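**User:**
Make up any protein.

**Assistant:**
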Amino acid sequence: MSDLMSGPMSGRRVAAVIGDPVRHSRSPAIHNAAFASAGIDWVFTAFEVPAGKGAEALEAMRVLGLAGMSVTMPLKAEVAAAADTVDAEVEILNAANCIVPLGDGRLHAANTDAAGFVAGLRADAGLSPDGLRVALVGGGGAARAVAWGLAAAGAADVAVINRTGTKAEAAASIANAASRLGRPGRVGSTDDIAAADLVINATSVGMGADPSMPCDPSLLGPGQVAVDLVYEPLETVWLTALRQQRVEAHNGLSMLAYQAAAAFELWTGTEAPVDAMRQAAAVAL
């Protein structure tokens, strides 16, 4: 980690999140709480950068001497292509959510989403992915990151379920042998949701005031664990219904906090104050 540090922490430094839209981002609240808790004289802000301007944003980062950068949609692929060096995760996912200055003018692209999910799963459910059977609902960027993270952490089977077949295939291919296309319905042995140890909603279904659910909660029951990557609201309709089915169910707050914690450590070389970051995220939401 030390080779990715952005340099001596003398004097106030600035880090930022870029994306469009970005005004809703919880990253400033999370990271400013982390800097304060760790006693680091940094400040975190947000810059709205439209699609097509990701490479220019990285050049601005060099010129301004920003100490770190978080990246959200729609710029994750653009900055991955524009960085000087990239992590293996970035190559596989074709997406970066964290840019780290190397101290010699070069910028390194990382993706902390997969590690953030796995860390959050361990923290919330005390669950290791090793050997798990997983049903993953969704086929977008979050689903791809989670599929890769679970496979890398030893999941035995990741069934990707999505209404758009091509997206499901793309997400399934990320995790190679551990991943495959899945089916949500009750069809004997093909009922991947009912058979899974862990069921994940990696779609935006249920976000905000949306009363929809990513799958029928009656497919799940006691002994299973579910994670809804949606964190706004913290309690979705699906989570409430799952708890009524006596399913252990968790929201996406931990993934949000732990992916930010991984970025914090890459930028600063300091252990992240995860509790302070989780609390700040919860308050911001």
Summary: The radius of gyration is 19 Å. Residues 71 and 97 are 4 Å apart (CA to CA). The first strand starts at residue 13 and ends at 19.
